[in-house]
Amino acid sequence: MAVTLRDYEDVVGPEVIEEIRLIAGYVRHKSLQNVNSTSVGGGVAEILTRMIPLLRELGVIASWDVIKGNEAFYSVTKAFHNALHGNQEKITEKMLDIYLENTAMNLRDMNLTGDVIMIHDPQPVGLILRKPEIGRQWIWRCHIDVSKPDPVAWNFLKPYVGRYDAAIFSMPDFAQKLPIPQYRVAPSIDPLSDKNKELDPGYVQQVLEQYGLNPERPILTQISRFDRLKDPLGVIHAYQLVKKHCDCQLILAGGGADDDPEGKEVLREVEEAAANDPDIHILLLPPFSDLEINALVRGSTIIFQKSIREGFGLTVSEALWKGKPVIGGSVGGIKLQIINGVTGFLVHSPEGAANRAVELLSDPDLCRKLGENGHCQVKENFLITRHVKDYMLLMLALDYPAERVIQLTASRNS
Ligand code: UDP
What we know:
alpha/beta, 6-stranded parallel sheet, 16 helices
């Protein structure tokens, strides 16, 4: 049965839902068109899949379109993605040309009709060139950590971004010098989705066994695309250090994303590093494995998100919501979710991750306490109900420019 807004009353309380309905009264019948670069894989697709039906139920005419691009384009945008995260990448003139060619194709072929057009991330940012012709209100929604971008990549994108009516970043650290208003809105998870809803313990056990895990032994898990910025090799290193002190199994579960061409190569590196250790389980999950991922996380003892750079890292909130202690890289949006020592541990190296994992494996009470705190932290700050409210408030703010200072509730914890 489809989830409706009323179902969230049991999670966040009826007052929150009433407030959302009230705000919806002001933006109802406006259309909000989202554009990104993939319909499957990664956090943006995850959020949009859950958000569009809720907005529609509230009367907002929400839609979601995906740009087209060839393989060369996605190689270029992946390099951009890494460079904007501050990674060393060589951005060449040829790459910029490929980006411009694909942008021109999308400008020609895409139907841009929303009253508000929300463009997600750098891949479709050039669609703003259509603005002089069709008007509309344009928002650039950046999901990546652009606090220290590579200057070549950022200087290329900046003139596009500067033409938008507003930009949204996930946390204040990511704000940039731009001639447009900037808002901070943190991402969110859906507590009622297959990925996050409560599961029968029997099903959790069944999934673990199906993937060759022993539910009686400790399990360390990272759920992530096979991407160097997620540091899967660092996770294997940490697991190997933990293994010297404690018995444990490791799950590295990840699928691909259509807009991420690097995945296959990173997977090869991961398989090589795992070196046939029977306790390392590399799971290649097809899209729509949400129930299985939910079960794998619920059946785990500790969740890693040992990213080297991270825009937000939905996987952190997904795990905290399930009451799991999370060990995360001390970067980007992970720092928004993990309060060190309260909802999990922030680490700077595989050695740090291993130390914390050993500490947690020997202290189940600490695991439980961090998990309980983490659940509350997500409930207060990172659920889809807050996110829907923020987007509607932003649509309102665009109509009332004098209200630019509107206090979005996204960062109550900052
Ligand atoms: N995910 C998934 N299958 C996988 C790997 C990841 O469904 O094999 C999901 C994960 O649960 C999360 C999203 O994809 O909801 C990843 O979002 P996140 O913000 O953690 O990272 P991104 O991939 O956007 O960098």
